Amino acid sequence: MSVGLTFETYSSLVNRLPNQSKHLNLLIFLAIYAVGLSVYSFMFDTFEGGRDNYAHFFISKYSWKYPRLLLDHWGKPAFTLVSSPFAQIGIRSVVIMNVILSAFTGYILFKTAIKTYTISSAFAGCLLLLFSPYFFVISASAMTEMMASTVIALVLYFVANKRFTAASIVFSSLVLIRTETFVFYPLIIAFFIYHKKYTDIPYLFLFPTLYTIAGFFYYNDPLWLISKSPYRGSVDVYGTGSILHFVKNLPVLIGWPFLLILTASILWFIVNRIQKKKLKEEPLLLLANGLWMLHLAAHSYAYWRGGHASMGLLRVLVPVIPAMAMVATAGIHHMLRKPRCLKSQLRGKIALMVLSMAQIAQPWIHLPIPYRYDEADKAMLAALDWYQQHNSSERKLYYYDLLIPYYLNLNPFDTTVCVEKFDFKEPSFNGENMVLYDTRFGAIEGMSNPKDFLYHPNLQLIQYFAPKITEKTFNGSDYEIFLFKTLNEKNSVDNIRTLDSLKTHKYKNKIPLFSNPFFAYGQDEFFEIFNADISEMISGKTFNILHINAKLRNLSRTDGLGFCISVEQGGEIKEFMSFPMDEWIDKRYRDQLLSGFNGFILKIFIWNQQKKTVEIEFDKLEVSLAEKIY
Questions:
Q1: Which residues contact 438 (CB under 8 A, 6 or more apart)?
Q2: Whole-angstrom Cα distance, residue 586 to residue 211?
Q3: pLDDT tens track for 118-168
Q4: 621-to-202, 323, 349, 469, 519 alpha-carbon distances in Å
Q5: Residues 153 and 122: beta-carbon distance below 8 Å
Q6: What is the pLDDT of residues 293-345, one digit of tens each?
């Protein structure tokens, strides 16, 4: 007589366990996940979403002092209301709130799946969700996408349990958390009509109606949720891109294992439809697929078309990842049931385990976490440290970058202390105050450039900061920070000369390597500028960058020409850098990071890749090693 326990018998026994036993291991896992991610989030210098994290934090924090902020369209009214108690403690508390929401979203997905599917399938779906790269990093942020994903998970849960009134009420809050989710309304209304839940349709508009009434008394506009929309960005500012941008980046958004399972699940679903095999959970899966596909299509169109403040950011798709996970969970369950022999079932289980373990690693494979301050951020922090040391707190500060009031612990809504997004065209700034202009946010938020400030009659440049190595901004310009003092009378100091002097003093302990005019003509593949073993020259010296200062007089053509830097040590190329020659047409200097070498051969040359005739002439070409400070 056999006493062996077959796979089918074991699964049957497990699925008969009490609900508490079924969920206990998951609850323990989610508790570990939440605590672990909360602790891990403290290793982040900054968060996914960049400065928008500070904007949401400020709106939530000061909504208790300025109630109008509870109706701030950009801040997302529902998110502001829920996050405001956490924000009183600090931005890290808002991050922990999102971590808790992410764990709760995983639990809701599990609860939805366990109603129809096996424990192993539901748990695998939960893993796919929690360790989707962008879901993971948004969990460790102060952004709104996580709350939106929780709402979508709850809607699917209530629909699965036939609680349509609850689903419609919860859904009605979604547009107050992520504005673009208004595109879901035709889909969800059609879904309710299909199920003949006509009386529940008005509840889909409950929270927008309540906020419309509340906002009417402040804005005196019954359509303020539409008219006050902040998403009318210029294509010139936000750019545009391929309509397939989001599709191509799905592996980064959710990870390869998740994408593989999701694709297989959709194909399986299509095959079943063709074979006319009816699933009892089919309406739920149609809704889940409709939600994430519609969201993907809407953002793809907005980014391709331009003009809708879309920058192609992948995080905007985070709200629908629970819907994608629901579809993947269904696929896991049904595909594992297909094999008819124990051997193939075990293979399926092993494959699922391998994919689940691979999914856990996806955030670290696709994203540079934990996020650290980049060189531009470090330059800004250096500027703020200098500002704190040299300026009185009585002066008003004009700025564009939201890191500034956060780091200086200023109330950004108190215009007697600081002013954001000011008009640089003002003839006067009313007294001796300070202006901290950066080329990243000043260009986007202020639609300005450094010349607008350097030539402003009432601004005097007093300090300048830049990254140790050149970093580009969104519009392609170099990242720079300028600190000005406002004057009541016309500035008598030449800001351009001051700027040249300040830039010079950023280079310490200069080691000159080459300083001559340069001329080259011909069809040679390589034109050598510098080639020497500089080990003795740098012995005992401190440096971190290679500084090149050049003035180009003539460049007969630009195609196929590269300005190259090669660092060699012991016959091995340690570092190679190349950039187009045409950069020197409107650029005077370039810094390249060089560190960690005790002695090396440095080669600088022009690479004529096409071996066409070319004439190159520099009036000045200076190369030096230096220790650059911010």
A1: 380, 400, 401, 479, 480, 481, 482
A2: 52
A3: 888 899 999 999 999 999 999 999 999 999 999 999 999 999 999 999 999
A4: 72, 58, 65, 19, 10
A5: no
A6: 999 999 999 899 876 667 889 999 999 999 999 999 998 888 777 654 445 56
**pLDDT for position 490:** 79
Q: Is the pLDDT confidence value at 217 over 70?
A: yes
pLDDT tens column, 427-477: 556 677 899 999 999 887 777 888 888 988 888 999 999 998 878 887 778
SS3 sequence of 195-260: CCCHHHHHHHHHHHHHHHHHHHHHHCCCCHHHHCCCCCCCHHHHCCCCCCHHHHCHHHHHCHHHHH
Amino acid 413 reads: F
Identify which of 36-50, 594-608, 614-628 has the greatest average pLDDT.
36-50
**Residues 538, 511 contacting (CB under 8 angstroms):** yes
C-alpha to C-alpha distance for 331 and 505, rounded to whole angstroms:
63
If one counts every other C-beta atom within 10 angstroms of the C-beta of residue 559, the result is 11
Cα(210)–Cα(66) distance, integer angstroms: 20
Contact 148, 319 (CB under 8 A): yes
Positions of E strands within 359-399 = 397-399
Let me know how long the chain is. Answer: 630
Distances (CA, A) of 221 to 76, 77, 179, 378: 18, 16, 18, 43
pTM: 0.85
Helices (H), 474-586: 495-504, 535-538
Q: Is the peptide bond before 512 cis (omega within 30 degrees of 0)?
A: no
| Total Cβ atoms within 10 A of residue 200 | 18
Single-letter amino acid code for the residue at 228: K
Phi/psi of residue 387, nearest 5 degrees: -60, -45
Give the torsion through C-alpha atoms of 264, 269, 272, 274, to 10 deg. Answer: -100
Beta-strand relationship, 418-420 and 397-399: parallel
Q: From CA 551, how far away is CA 566, in angstroms rounded?
A: 21
